[in-house]
Write a structure and sequence with these properties.
The protein is mainly alpha-helical and about 100 residues long. It has helices spanning about 15-45, 55-100. It has two helices and no strands.
Length: about 100
């Protein structure tokens, strides 16, 4: 997996919401990694020397798709970072609530 979250795995039974959000961040990172793999394959295919006008158009199309997919991967990574921050905030709230009981 390319990206690692900053939220450590937690075993506290009272921290269920933050654990669920951390798990979601992990899944989003997995999807981001999958999109990155697709981008790498698009780069490889676009690198083939296409000799026909249709082939050159296809190569251009693949370049556009790769740029779009790279943007999606970046947005997924950003979402995972934001989910990590939300998980950390939830964990703090859950910990405060646990201490208050």
């Amino acid at each position: 997996m390319g990206g690692q979250g900053t939220t450590a795995a937690r075993c506290e039974t009272w921290a269920q919401d933050s654990q669920a959000v951390a798990a979601l961040a992990y899944q989003v990172r997995l999807h981001s990694d999958s999109v990155d793999e697709i981008c790498a394959r698009l780069v490889a295919v676009a690198g083939i020397d296409w000799e026909s006008p249709a082939g050159r158009n296809f190569r251009s199309y693949l370049g556009e798709r790769r740029r779009s997919m790279a943007e999606v991967a970046g947005l997924l990574r950003l979402a995972a970072v934001q989910l990590d921050a939300h998980s950390a905030a939830l964990y703090q709230a859950e910990a405060a609530a646990q201490v208050g009981q």
